[in-house]
Design brief:
The protein has two domains: 274 residues, D-Maltodextrin-Binding Protein, domain 2, CATH 3.40.190.10; 218 residues, Dipeptide-binding Protein, domain 3, CATH 3.10.105.10. It is 29% helix and 18% strand.
Amino acid sequence: MSTRHPRLRRKLAAAIGVLASMSLLAACATSDATPGAAGGGEPQAGGDITFLIDSLGDTWIPNNGSISSYQGQVWRQLTDKLVYVDEEGTVSPWVAESWEQNDDATEYTLNLRDGVTFSDGTPVDADAVVANLDIWAKGDPERGINRIGLFPSANYETATAVDPSTVKVTFTQPTLGFIPTLGYHGSILLSPETIALPAEGQADLSNAIGSGAFTVESWQEGDNVVLTKRDDYSWGPEALEHTGPAYLDSITYKIVAEQSLRTASVQSSQADVGYNASPQELEALSSEGFQVATPRYLGFAYGFAVDTRVEPFGETAVRQAFQHGIDRQEILDTVYTDDWQAAESFIQSNVPEATDHAAAFAYDPEESERLLDEAGWVAGADGVRAKDGKRLEVTLHPTPYLATSQPVDELIAQQLTRIGFDVTLEAFDVITYGERVTNKEGIAVEEPTRSFIDIGTVAGVLTSVNGGEDWFGVGESDTTLNDFATGISTASDSEARAQLADELQAYVLEQGYYVPVTQIVQRIYVQQPGLQGVTYDGVAFANYATAWLS
């Protein structure tokens, strides 16, 4: 690890100090916090910020951790992407200054921006981009490196450096989603030197050589990461107007697991950003003058992916009863604020191809009871239904990637109990959740928190076709779903693909494969009034290359 600069040592010491006493912090928050109105004016260079975060995940291997809600915050500052995608899904140039595609969307040409370099001074040229595309699409299982989830790997054929500033990419099938997916948070540009390292080397964050506006100054596993600005950076996305070096000198990411302590630290001016505050605190924090940001990402709505291999969810009636047994308005009224919205489908409504299918899973406990009655599930003396000697049981695992998941699941447990389910909750921290819940056999319902940039990549989770993630446990047995997955991932016409997306949404919800709850706001930021110019991309990550302290 490198030695910290004196100013960073002081900043980090202040961040570590927030752990000393919850009661002291609370006292400071109530007596010393006197935030003023958020300032404006011209950006000012200089200054260091501390970002308190609940976790930094379990690995720094880029392909394995860059899509995490936690590590992704750091990778956003260290790396660039070929294109920039904003919160509405609009794609604009970044390291790729332009691109062309053939008529059937099987071949793309990327024209790279001149003068872009990695932090070690080597160029971000065509050879480097080819190395990145290959590792995103294929991973390297022998080295323990995953491919990037939701990258269009199934159709990917090859990438070739035509000349130092031109890359040609070919696919075996039409792949309309290729260019937008280059703005996905897994599609981060790293030096070929970093990519070539074994997994153990990539897991050492000090070996990360990116082309972003910041570099790694130091890091300590399970505790903190310190980033410092690159003075020679000059190629930020033009969509953000500021394309030059960051105004801030440094960012310290510090793990503080306790949510209330993160918020109190911002209130007492011991930190600049608190991540994942409770929604119930936001109105009060805003009224005190703090900045609150709740960007919605492009991706899947918050809810449950149902594994049909796990009983009793092999029965369509049980899945549909589960859907209709959830009172989403009660959840919004109890847990959230007006910034949150009910789900309308299993994808977010800001995805361009999203359509409203809320009626398919509307709260209707009478319908839930009718479905279960007709399927032979009979209520016992304790109110729990049973069939053929087996109780109607389900275990919910609140996702640690969403601050509100546990209180939401507690409400859902009460709601499902009223229609005859026996509901158990098991909560784990981030690392244990990954070990025991994520993509593990025997988990009946899982709560994905997954963003995506382009609707075509949704095909990668629906079934096991072409190595898909098979969220619903159907393998290739549901031929209708297979056809949708193939059609939406290989469409060459945007209008035809949008129609397929509408039909796909209707089918998934009618089958009860997914149980939407709310539109997801996974990343909640509480910030000091003086922290200006923060921007948020299509996956709701904060960008501090544009930020300054007023």
